[in-house]
Amino acid sequence: MEDFYSFFIFWCLIILQRLIELRIARNNEKWMMEQGAIEYGHEHYRFIVWMHLLFFLVFISEKITLNRGISDTWQWLLFVFILTQLVRVWALFSLGKYWNTKIIVLPGANVVKRGPYRWIKHPNYLIVSIELLVIPLLFNCFLTAAVFTLLNIFMLSIRIPKEEQALKTYTEYEGAFHKCNRFLPKLLKKYDN
Q1: Is the CB of residue 84 less than 8 Å from the CB of residue 127?
Q2: Which residue segment(s) compose the domain that 97 sits in?
Q3: pLDDT at 191 (0 to 100)
Q4: Does the pLDDT value for residue 190 go beyond 60?
Q5: Of 167, 183, 166, whose CA–CA distance to 117 is shortest?
Q6: Are the beta carbons of 95 and 24 closer than 8 angstroms?
Q7: CB–CB of 109/173 below 8 Å?
Q8: What CATH number should be reported for the domain holding residue 76?
């Protein structure tokens, strides 16, 4: 029973974090739209929202119905999870008012090249990809980890090209990120600010 309480507290904390992030995203969206920003990819956004909602429902369902216990490697998985949360906050603060869950681009805005964006183009998508794997694995929810990792790969294959096209159209994105990879940093090269 103690395992279930740990799981439930963990699950609630993640839900609370997501709700806070949605509030921040809405405030940022309002500010950006007032500045003349343009939204891209709204046709696929609802599928991303549904994917994340289903992730939490399937995760809790697999845990309860299949009576999944905590992983034997929970300490390592929890360490990876905490590390991703630190990078998540770093990415969010690096983008500031430009951070959003939607693709919203302010024409002519300077592309953010600080924080984790100094080394990779999409640190937040990398973080979400790791979370969708690590969170369920903490509680041996292998089905959830596999299904939502695959769904996320599919969704990112749609979302990232849309986002990059919007950024290339309205900002100096291509020139700013010509030395960076999408997900893996090039650690051997030094970049100028």
Answers
A1: yes
A2: 2-176
A3: 44
A4: no
A5: 183
A6: no
A7: no
A8: 1.20.120.1630
